[in-house]
Backbone:
């Protein structure tokens, strides 16, 4: 049983690590995009932190509403001050400058972090002044790093459970021979 637990932990770790490989590309594909020169509507289904990227090289962006389509390839860099993200009441969210200027590359996609915003579920208006494309969502490299951390935790946890199972499954050795105690009185006839 302990060997099966250890093997299970290794298999689960391997599967988690394998899934971490293509994960950044799928995160990039799932980023919301706002095109310069128009207003875009962003629907957010959970609370947390969104990273705001200036997309410098990426795939095609389809036309949405009044926004024009953008061809794949190189893009103009967007300045942090030219991006406004507002909630449904019209209040602009603060763009936190943490990690501003950090470059992120995944395959052919390249972007620079403009900052981060804290959001709650709901609708948001994203306005980008000038040309360029802004991508919003999770940082693909952080998602990959978290997945690898999960793999290490699964491995350590699985091996710890296997070790506990191995220790608890040990039973004292039993023998079919009768036990002779040194302290028992001798049995049989007594003289005198």
Residues:
């Amino acid at each position: 049983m302990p060997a099966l637990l250890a093997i299970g932990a290794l298999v689960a770790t391997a599967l988690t690590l394998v899934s971490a490989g293509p994960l950044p590309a799928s995160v990039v594909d799932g980023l919301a995009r706002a095109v310069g020169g128009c207003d875009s509507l962003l629907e957010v289904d959970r609370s947390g932190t969104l990273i705001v990227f200036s997309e410098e090289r990426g795939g095609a962006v389809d036309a949405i509403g009044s926004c024009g389509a953008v061809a794949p390839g190189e893009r103009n860099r967007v300045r942090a001050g030219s991006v406004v993200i507002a909630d449904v009441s019209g209040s602009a969210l603060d763009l936190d400058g943490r990690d501003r200027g950090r470059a992120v590359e995944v395959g052919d996609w390249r972007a620079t972090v403009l900052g981060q915003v804290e959001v709650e579920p709901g609708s948001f208006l994203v306005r980008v002044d000038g040309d360029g494309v802004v991508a919003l969502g999770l940082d693909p490299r952080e998602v990959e790093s978290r997945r690898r951390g999960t793999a290490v935790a699964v491995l350590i946890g699985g091996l710890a459970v296997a070790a506990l199972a191995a220790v608890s499954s040990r039973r004292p050795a039993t023998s079919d021979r009768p036990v002779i105690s040194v302290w028992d009185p001798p049995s049989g006839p007594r003289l005198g």
About this structure: The CA atoms of residues 47 and 119 lie 5 Å apart. Residues 28-144 form a domain with the Jelly Rolls fold (CATH 2.60.120).
